[in-house]
Design a protein that fits this description.
The protein is α+β, with helices and mostly antiparallel strands. About 35% of the residues lie in helices and about 15% in strands. It is extended.
Length: about 475
């Protein structure tokens, strides 16, 4: 049966009970912690046997108690009932009925005749439901004002939750504290501020997280707020058995204590570690002594290193380590760890196989053509062949200037500044004089750049001679004046 407050209104918009994932008003799955499905509801009882007259009633935050149907009312699962309280009456929802209640009472070790089993007064009337809902709406404001009063008194405690009784005459304040707290003055201030009877109840860090709820580091709802009720002690030894780093930030939950899930797989780790040798055992080999570094429990692999050469680790199987220990116990030294490591064959990992290119996201896209480096052609410029370009560069005046600049630089580097004659650059092949003259006449245009090369040298000599003459004249005039 679903919660009535979670239905939709006339416009189709969900109403919502504003419980933020911790429903306690109905029997929807989020707030019904450890809800039991009554699979015996459709079965008839044997003849002559009366139905079990004790029912399980659920209150806020999954709190459950057992109540006796002394008036023999017709009650079914999901009904809202008024039950006996410490003073007055409380209102809750019937979460379980029938023969399965006996099983739940046996788990909690509660007998049918004990004083903890109280009475069911009646089915809740509309007036009882209205008073109950008004009291539930006061809880947030009461919690806020209660924290203000605690801060004024300077008490070292944390108010985590407030729960009103169904008739609105009493409120239970749940708090957490590391040390003992004297809250006698606090009770007086709270009773005068809200005009109710006050009950203070201390809970642990784990119980507080279970009441508030939340999402763990695994991405799921907290185990303590959904299904876990048996809070066992968690030690750091559980992390050591599982080869986990002792980092309190990673091992602690939202309650500030060690995570309860460290105990879930502890038994399997302890059983697997029975075959492994102790970590303090030292392996004696021909190369030296080897000490333990780390292990992989389920793959049955261990890593050892030499005491003198600790920079390199050697991977060994569990069988190889046990073999070396047997040799050491017999008084023999084992072969070096390199030989044992070479015997281990690493199985290739079977990864996702490409079936007809199904893993490619761009398999349906058209392939792009490669770009070619094409030179941009300017308009109005004739593209001449390479031979003509070489010929034109020889005729133009730019090339001789570059050649003259090169020759000047080369001459500066030379210590004697001698001119290089064209005769020395002639080939060794001798030809007739007539042919040589004809070649000189025809190649006169080609020798023009060579003439240009010599002109700067002549100018330089003239300038040097003028400077020498001027210096000589100046020296003579100075001698006459003296």
């Amino acid at each position: 049966m679903g919660c009535g407050n979670c239905s939709t209104n006339k416009n189709g918009v969900p109403k919502g009970c504003k419980s933020n994932g911790n429903c306690a008003t109905g029997s929807c799955g989020s707030g019904n912690k450890l809800a039991v499905f009554d699979w015996l509801s459709n079965m008839t009882l044997p003849t002559g046997e009366a139905p079990f007259n004790i029912y399980e009633v659920r209150f806020k935050n999954g709190r459950k108690h057992f109540y006796k149907n002394a008036e023999k009312l017709t009650i079914s699962m999901g009904d809202i009932v008024a039950v006996e309280g410490s003073s007055g009456h409380d209102v809750g929802v019937v979460s379980l009925a029938g023969e399965l209640v006996k099983v739940q009472m046996r788990k909690r070790k509660i007998e049918a005749d004990s004083d903890e089993v109280k009475k069911i007064y009646r089915k809740a009337s509309q007036k009882d439901i209205d008073v109950w809902q008004e009291a539930r709406q006061k809880e947030l404001e009461t919690q806020r004002k209660g924290r203000e009063i605690i801060s004024k008194l300077g008490l070292k405690m944390k108010l985590s939750d407030v729960e009103y009784q169904g008739d609105g005459t009493k409120a239970t304040f749940y708090y957490t504290a590391d040390d003992r707290v004297d809250f006698r003055q606090l009770i007086r201030d709270l009773a005068s501020a809200f005009s109710i009877r006050v009950e203070m109840k201390q809970v642990g860090m784990r119980q507080e997280a279970a009441r508030l709820g939340g999402v763990g580091s695994c991405g799921r709802e907290l185990c303590c707020s959904t299904w876990l009720t048996d809070f066992r002690k968690v030690n750091t030894a559980a992390a050591r058995y599982q080869q986990l780093s002792l980092n309190p930030l990673k091992l602690a939950g939202q309650c500030g204590k060690l995570k309860c899930c460290l105990n879930f797989e502890l038994d399997s780790y302890v059983d697997a570690l029975k075959e492994f040798p102790k970590q303090e055992v030292v392996l004696n080999t021909e190369k030296g002594e080897a000490i333990f570094v780390k292990m992989d429990i389920f793959k049955q692999l261990l890593w050892y290193t030499y005491k003198e050469e600790s920079y390199k680790w050697y991977k060994l199987s569990l069988e190889q380590v046990l073999e070396i220990i047997e040799l050491n116990n017999a008084g023999e030294q084992a072969s070096p760890l390199e030989e044992y490591e070479s015997e281990i064959l690493d199985d290739p990992k079977i990864d996702f196989e490409n079936v007809v290119g199904q893993d490619s996201l761009t398999r349906f896209d058209t392939p792009k053509k490669p770009k070619r480096n094409r030179r941009k052609v300017k308009k109005g410029v004739n593209n001449k062949p390479a031979e003509n370009k070489v010929a034109d560069s020889k005729v133009t005046n730019k090339s001789p200037q570059k050649n003259t600049e090169k020759t000047e630089v080369e001459k500066k580097k030379r210590p004697d500044n001698r001119r290089t004659s064209t005769r020395n650059n002639r080939p060794n092949n001798t030809k007739p004089k007539g042919e040589v003259k004809q070649n000189n006449n025809t190649a006169s245009n080609k020798q023009q750049p060579v003439e240009n090369k010599t002109t700067p040298n002549k100018k330089r000599r003239r300038n040097n001679n003028k400077k020498r003459n001027n210096n000589g004249n100046n020296n003579a005039e100075n001698n006459k004046q003296k």
